[in-house]
Amino acid sequence: MSMALPDTRDHRTFERAKVELGRCDVCGTGKAVYRSREEQAKVCEGRYARLVQEWNKGEEVR
Ligand SMILES: [Zn+2]
Predict the structure, then answer these.
(1) Whose CA is closest to 11, among 40, 49, 59?
(2) Rounded to 10 degrees, what is the CA torsion of 8, 12, 14, 17?
(3) How far is the centre of ligand 1, averaged over its atoms, from the C-alpha of 21 (Å)?
(4) What separation in Å is there between the alpha carbon of 30 and the centre of ligand 1?
(5) Distance 11 CA to ligand 1 centre (A)
(6) How far, in Å, CA of 39 to CA of 48, rounded?
(7) Which of 17, 28, 42, 53 is the most buried (most CB within 10 A)?
(8) pLDDT digits 0-9 by tens, 14-56
(9) How far is CA 4 from the centre of its chain?
(10) What is this structure's pTM?
């Protein structure tokens, strides 16, 4: 197993929040809508989509 990149978090630990979270932890500009208790992070819609994308890439079988 390789070390995870700083901005590579497991999207499965994130869940859509029902309350205001403030700014996204990753880009610092977007409105955070997903949060992870495990990762102690909150991310915006766009960043969350990226997490899922990166995850799917990692799952690809060559
Ligand atoms: Zn963001």
Answers:
(1) 49
(2) 150
(3) 12
(4) 4
(5) 14
(6) 13
(7) 42
(8) 999 999 999 999 999 999 999 999 989 999 999 999 999 988 8
(9) 13
(10) 0.76
